[in-house]
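Re: the request from the purification team.
They wanted to know what the chain is likely to look like in 3D before they choose a buffer screen. I agreed to run a prediction and write the result into the notebook, where they can find it.
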Amino acid sequence: MNVTVKKVSVAVLSGEEFRSLFDRYADESGLVAYGKWAIAWDVYKSLEASGVFTAFVAYDGEKPVGLTGCLFTKHLHYSTPALCVDGLFVLPEYRKQGVGGRLFGCIHRLAKELQVKHLWVNCPPDGALDKELSRKSAFKLIAKTYEKGLCYGG
């Protein structure tokens, strides 16, 4: 296995070669209450164009085996710069081999470059990433998110 991690554009990420990876990611980490995944690529492209979104992909040769996206923001109440990890996924057969660590390495380098003070990682409760981060002393649970489905929207 020769895994490398590269920064990629949203245009690359939205390509056909990533469909299988996103399907597996959705199967494992999708939020059932929201229905079928329909990624808002136009929003990601706008965020990237404004300089606040960055994506990284782990490749085994030419095959994408993991990915993460990062959103640079400020906490709305504290005005402190933060980097929000907008999903991190590694194919199960590539876990426990350092692939997630390499993706986190890219995230940390980006955080240092942007001089952020906090790194937020969102993930579904009791999923693979949640279980992994709960075992890491560097990460601590600071909030919970609750969802209430509404019938007002179309």
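For the purification team: The beta strands are 3-8, 53-60, 63-74, 81-90, 118-121.
Please add any questions underneath this entry.
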